[in-house]
Design a protein that fits this description.
Mean pLDDT: 94
Radius of gyration: 20 Å
Number of helices: 9
Distance between the termini: 17 Å
CATH class of the largest domain: Alpha Beta
CATH topology of the largest domain: D-Maltodextrin-Binding Protein, domain 2
Oligomer: single chain
CATH architecture of the largest domain: 3-Layer(aba) Sandwich
Shape: elongated
Largest sheet: 6 strands, mixed
Strand content: 25-35%
Order of helices and strands: EHEHEEHEEEHHEHEHEEEHEEHE
């Protein structure tokens, strides 16, 4: 998808992986709005201040981004697309700084967790921040000579900083899945995925009976994840991704069957599957 002049909201500072994902999905000729929080991304799309929002939903190494899942419960927005972005972390500092002089490393908690092995070898203090690229911006603006940040190569270019080491993530199979937020989901393509949320009755076999609606129709689940409802202790919402589009007969029948098996069901939208990694 490439659309000149679209306005896209993302969480973080310029150079964040979310911005990189937006450019990869929509093309180079977009305009972006950097948001401090994930909730702000949702709000800007809901209020029609931007055309789309982009948010991380899960990482192949560190797992789910719980805040995004929680925000999806209450929003009226739809998921209109997804993207898998290869995450290549860099250790970034001021120009002419030697890696042996680094005393503290800043970054988003997920980025720090994805670089544990490298950080253990540095013997530095590790301080979590709200954003990867924001950490680069901070050490630049504050003149922190003995500090470094873990962020993208692009962020080093934006803020005029130097890369001390590239590819410091623990695994080469480090991908983050991003969702595209819109007021509408996407039309049928024949290679689609649908996302829903539901909760079940607190009785034996409730989840089995719900998932059986997919199995008897031959619908393949690609992800199932639970989060506390935050309303009643020990009760959970189930987030499910499955192959198929809302316009298909078997998907419509499945959702009708689910209504009989669940207390709550919310359809987040149908969208084209992300391209293979």
């Amino acid at each position: 998808m490439k659309h000149k002049g679209l306005l896209i909201a993302f969480q973080g500072e310029r150079g964040a992986y979310s911005e990189e994902a937006a450019i990869k999905f929509f093309g180079n000729e977009i305009n972006v709005i950097a948001c401090k929080t994930m909730a702000e991304v949702f709000t800007k799309v809901e209020n029609n201040e931007v055309d789309y929002g982009i948010v991380p939903i899960e990482n192949s190494i560190e797992g789910s981004v719980n805040e995004t899942y929680d925000l999806l419960v209450d929003t009226k927005l739809k998921i209109a697309g997804e993207l898998n972005l290869r995450i290549i972390h860099c250790l970034i500092a001021h120009p002419n700084v030697d890696i042996r002089d680094i005393k503290v490393v800043y970054s988003h908690p997920q980025a720090l967790a994805q670089c544990k092995k490298f950080l253990n070898g540095l013997s530095c203090d590790v301080i979590p921040t709200y954003d990867t690229a924001g950490s680069v911006k901070m050490i630049k603006e504050k003149g922190l000579i003995n500090a470094a940040a873990i962020a993208s190569e692009r962020s080093s270019e934006i803020y005029g900083m130097s890369i001390l080491k590239k590819g410091i993530e623990d695994s080469p199979d480090n991908y983050t899945r991003f969702l595209i937020l819109s007021h509408n989901d996407s039309p049928f393509t024949g290679n689609d995925k649908t996302s829903i949320i539901f909760s079940t009755k607190h009785i034996p076999g409730a989840l089995y009976n719900a998932l059986r609606e997919f199995a008897i129709r031959g619908i393949n689940l690609t992800m199932i994840f639970s989060r506390p409802t935050k309303k009643t202790p020990w009760e959970y919402n189930f987030f499910v991704d499955f192959e198929g589009h809302l316009s298909e007969k078997r998907v419509k029948e499945c959702l009708e069957g689910l209504k009989e098996q669940t207390l709550f069901i919310k359809v987040l939208g149908s969208y084209p599957k992300a391209k293979p990694n």
